């Protein structure tokens, strides 16, 4: 119990510290709105005189875009930078001797940041988008429920990927930001911008074997009603398998990383 | 005068050498950038291709034409991050008092500031930039006549200056407010959305804003319109390709004067 209280406290301090930068809140809102606004025009032009493509119409695609931007505004995964920075400054050893799990601390910090991002970024963006673009309603109440559940798994995939990338800096500090490659992949083949279902068949099949489409495309597809109940459940199951798999990799890596620190520390 | 210029050139050359040496201390740090940045942009342009194939040309712009526009934009982006990336960090430099060392030297501060760090990562954006531009210009049958070559070069210089000057102006806000990083990300998002696609997909109001208020249309949209014979929706008394360097130079002059004015507000690090 006391351990959980400790994590809650860490999350709370993170929320409070992000409330300090009010100017950033405002400019991030504008930046995100620019993204949604521009992309919705992109889709409007693409859909000119076209009814629906792959069973998705213009209205659904604009909803997809708005919710996608909301998600990326809400999802915070500083874990990779935190690990990197703690290693570079040598503080990681101090983190390891704390009486709570070090990765639990990082996760609690990120969840705290998410709580403040939802309040300060996602909710205002939702309101502004609803006023100026379109009200991004889910296809059904069931869809909304499944979407929310799927988002939790999405975030776990994203967080674990970032943590794994962060952990690699125990071995390859000099390789530069591996996270940059990961972010490029998430930015392009996760469906956060253009859904993979529009891609040519062969490429789509390959991409569906990777975890990236399960970060953005799956929950968003559920939200707009692109995938039916059965497909949604199937997708969520695959998400769950990815979470387990990535957790296993993460677990092994962090064990090894721990030993490495103790060796270095003498 | 000549002696003055010679002095600046030799200082610049030393500074450049130092900047390269500093970054190449760990040459492998570039590896992830060399993979990540080209991947990002090649996928970006390819995805637009997918959309034009599955849907239709974007407001009359075919995929080859968009690739040509994308190429110009990305080349100017890579040049601007190569030369002007320090402007993204003015916030940090103001807080840490890093301008102190520039102020005590007998060479112009803005010059030292620009020459202090030539960002090698810019080259990793230039790789996809060159590939996409070469691809785009060959599929639209761009004629490499003498005048067209000169015009393209002028456009690239102008577009790089427009981007660099915008970063400089926004970065300089930190001299007054101590914070400008989030403004930079905002304008970065704007560049992404206004220079990689034809501006004409947006309503006319937006196009007017990005022509007269924030002249980002001159980075890639107007020059591409002219080279490709596309309708830009506006009539200008001069060729667009010539407007781009003019706008670039004017913006750069404004940017330097704002930077210098901001520098007067600079009060070094506290305590």
Structural notes for this entry:
- The complex is a heterodimer of chains A (266) and B (271).
- Chain A is mostly helical and 266 residues long.
- Chain A has one domain (2-265).
- In chain A, 74% of the residues lie in helices and 2% in strands.
- Chain A contains 11 helices and 2 strands; from the N terminus they run H-H-E-E-H-H-H-H-H-H-H-H-H.
- In chain A, strands 1-2 form a two-stranded antiparallel ribbon.
- In chain A, helix 1 crosses helix 6 (102-132) and helix 2 crosses helix 6.
- The mean pLDDT of chain A is 88.
- The N and C termini of chain B lie far apart (41 Å).
- Chain B contains 12 helices and no strands.
- In chain B, helix 3 packs antiparallel against helix 7, helix 8 (146-177) packs antiparallel against helix 9 and helix 11 runs antiparallel to helix 12 (240-265).
- Chain B is mainly alpha-helical.
- In chain B, 72% of the residues lie in helices and 0% in strands.
- The longest helix of chain B has 32 residues, at 146-177.
- Chain B has one domain.
- Chain B is globular and about 55 Å long.
- The chains are: A mainly alpha (266), B mainly alpha (271).
- At the A-B interface, helix 2 and helix 8 of A face helix 2 and helix 9 of B.
Number of separate structural domains of chain B:
1
Estimate the global geometry of chain B from the Cα principal axes.
globular
In total, the number of strands of chain B is 0
Structural class of chain B: mainly alpha
Order of helices and strands of chain A: HHEEHHHHHHHHH
Helical segment tally of chain B?
A: 12
* Uncertain ranges of chain A: none
Overall body shape of chain A:
globular
Assess the beta-strand content of chain B as a share of residues: under 5%
Main sheet characteristics of chain A: 2 strands, antiparallel
Task: Write the H/E string of chain B, N to C.
Answer: HHHHHHHHHHHH
Count of individual beta strands of chain A: 2
Largest inter-chain interface?
Answer: A-B, 39 and 36 residues
Overall average residue pLDDT of chain A = 88
Distance between the termini of chain B: 41 Å
Oligomer: heterodimer
Low-confidence stretches of chain B: none
């Amino acid at each position: 119990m006391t351990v959980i209280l400790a994590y809650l406290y860490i999350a709370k301090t993170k929320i409070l510290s992000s409330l300090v930068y009010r100017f950033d809140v405002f400019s991030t809102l504008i930046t995100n709105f620019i993204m949604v606004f521009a992309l919705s025009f992109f889709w409007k032009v693409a859909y000119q005189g076209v009814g629906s493509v792959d069973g998705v119409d213009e209205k659904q695609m604009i909803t997809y875009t708005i919710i996608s931007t909301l998600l990326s505004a809400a999802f915070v995964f500083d874990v990779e930078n935190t690990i990197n920075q703690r290693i570079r400054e040598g503080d990681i050893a101090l983190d390891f001797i704390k009486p709570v799990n070090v990765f639990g601390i990082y996760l609690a910090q990120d969840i705290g940041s998410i709580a403040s991002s939802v309040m300060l970024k996602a909710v205002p963006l939702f309101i502004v988008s609803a006023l100026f673009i379109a009200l991004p309603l889910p296809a059904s109440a069931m869809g909304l429920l499944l979407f929310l559940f799927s988002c939790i798994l999405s975030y776990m995939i994203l967080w674990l990927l970032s943590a794994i990338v962060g952990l690699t800096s125990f071995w390859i500090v000099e390789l530069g930001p591996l996270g940059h490659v990961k972010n490029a992949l998430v930015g392009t083949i996760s469906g956060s911008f253009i859904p993979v279902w529009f891609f040519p068949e062969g490429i789509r099949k390959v991409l569906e074997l990777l975890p990236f489409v399960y970060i953005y495309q799956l929950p968003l597809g559920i939200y707009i009603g692109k995938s039916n109940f059965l497909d949604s459940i199937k997708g969520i199951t695959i998400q769950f398998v990815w979470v387990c798999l990535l957790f296993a990799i993460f677990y092994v890596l962090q064990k090894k990383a721990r030993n490495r620190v103790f060796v270095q520390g003498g | 005068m000549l002696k003055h210029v010679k002095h600046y050139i030799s200082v610049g050359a030393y500074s450049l050498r130092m900047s390269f040496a500093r970054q190449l201390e760990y040459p492998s740090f570039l590896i992830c950038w060399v993979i990540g940045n080209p991947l990002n942009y090649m996928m970006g342009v390819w995805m637009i291709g997918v959309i034009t194939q599955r849907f239709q040309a974007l407001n009359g712009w075919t995929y080859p034409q968009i690739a040509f526009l994308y190429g110009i934009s990305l080349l100017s982006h890579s040049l601007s991050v190569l030369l002007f990336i320090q402007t993204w960090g003015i916030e940090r430099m103001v807080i840490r008092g890093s301008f102190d060392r520039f102020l005590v030297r007998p060479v112009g501060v803005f010059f030292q500031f620009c020459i202090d760090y030539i960002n090698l990562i810019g080259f990793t954006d230039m790789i996809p930039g060159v590939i996409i531009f070469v691809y785009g210009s060959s599929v639209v049958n761009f004629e490499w006549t003498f005048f067209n070559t000169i015009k393209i070069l002028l456009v690239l210089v102008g577009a790089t200056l427009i981007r660099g000057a915008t970063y400089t102006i926004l970065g300089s806000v930190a001299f007054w407010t101590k914070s400008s990083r989030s403004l930079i990300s905002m304008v970065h998002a704007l560049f992404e959305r206004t220079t990689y696609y034809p501006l004409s997909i947006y309503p006319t109001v937006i196009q007017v804003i990005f022509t007269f208020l924030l002249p980002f249309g001159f980075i890639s949209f107007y020059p591409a319109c002219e080279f490709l014979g596309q309708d830009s929706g506006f009539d200008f008394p001069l060729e667009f390709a010539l407007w781009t360097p003019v706008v670039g130079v004017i913006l750069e002059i404004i940017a330097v004067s704002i930077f210098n004015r901001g520098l007067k507000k600079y009060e070094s690090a506290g305590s």
